[in-house]
Automatic annotation (TrEMBL):
Keyword Manganese: yes
Organism this protein belongs to: Pyrus ussuriensis x Pyrus communis
Entry binding sites for oxalate: N104, H109, E114
Protein known as: Germin-like protein
Protein family per UniProt: Belongs to the germin family.
Secretion signal, residue range per the UniProt entry: 1-21
Keywords from the named record: Apoplast, Disulfide bond, Glycoprotein, Manganese, Metal-binding, Receptor, Secreted, Signal
Record InterPro entries: Cupin_1, Germin, Germin_Mn-BS, RmlC-like_jellyroll, RmlC_Cupin_sf
GO molecular function terms noted in the UniProt entry: manganese ion binding
Main location: secreted
């Protein structure tokens, strides 16, 4: 019995170990052919002989993203969609800029843990565990914070000056589920009676949130 249990533990640890990030690659490089029509888990790769330095290069994080939007923040992604050479490598970056008072609203990354480094300013950040415990801290320039894979989190700039951070992910394509938009701005709409029962409020309150979050025409 003990032997069976030990075997189970080893098998479980192996599964955990192999799913800690994107799957391992099987060759030196695997540059994504972003235009290929074939669908695979990840991206089809182009001929290795055709790879160039441009496939591994991106300038998009050099400048602040535009923060003149509803939430006063902008996440600029440097993942496989921008850097085809990241295909199968299991890592990516982003830069997040915040206007004074801006927020990167409650969201999760289904495929990655996130570790951030504050470039400028001061941010109130936090995540919520599956035990419903809020882990929260104010972080400033030069400091680092971690958001575990899949957990709901936020970064909020309560200051009168802008802020920015670099985020790293253990996935080539971390994915993002925006809590408010997922629930109140999906297409087609999540039915009102699903939301009224979920939030224990009336249709009026649900419709108010839906209209606030609807894309501005
Ligand atoms: C590699 O580049 C050559 C020259 O541009 C092109 O003819 C060929 O189709 C490319 N191969 C692949 C697999 O993309
Ligand atoms: C944000 O600012 C940019 C550059 O100043 C401008 O082109 C853009 O239209 C603005 N967007 C909004 C939603 O105001």
């Amino acid at each position: 019995m003990a032997a069976v249990f030990a075997l189970f533990l080893v098998a479980f640890a192996t599964v955990l170990g192999s799913s800690a990030a994107d799957p391992d690659m099987l060759q030196d490089i695997c540059v994504a052919d972003l235009t290929a029509a074939v669908k695979v888990n990840g991206f089809v790769r182009k001929d290795a002989a055709n790879a160039t330095a441009e496939d591994f290069f991106f300038t998009g994080l050099a400048k602040p993203g535009l923060t003149n939007n509803t939430f006063g923040s902008m996440a600029t992604l440097a993942n496989v969609g921008k850097i085809p050479g990241l295909n199968t490598l299991g890592v990516s970056l982003a830069r997040i800029d915040f206007a004074p008072g801006g927020i990167n609203p409650l969201h999760t990354h289904p495929r990655a843990t996130e570790i951030v480094y504050v470039l400028e300013g001061e941010l109130d950040v936090g995540f919520i565990t599956t035990a419903n415990k809020l882990i929260r801290k104010t972080i400033k320039q030069g400091e680092v914070f971690v958001f575990p894979k899949g957990l709901v989190h936020f970064q909020n700039n309560n200051e009168k000056s802008p802020a920015s951070m670099i985020a790293a992910f253990n996935s080539q394509l971390q994915g993002r589920v925006d809590i408010a938009l997922t629930l109140f701005a999906a297409t087609p709409e999540v039915l009102d009676n699903v939301l009224t029962k979920t939030f224990q409020v009336g249709t009026k309150q649900v419709d108010k949130i839906k209209s606030n979050l609807a894309p501005k025409a």
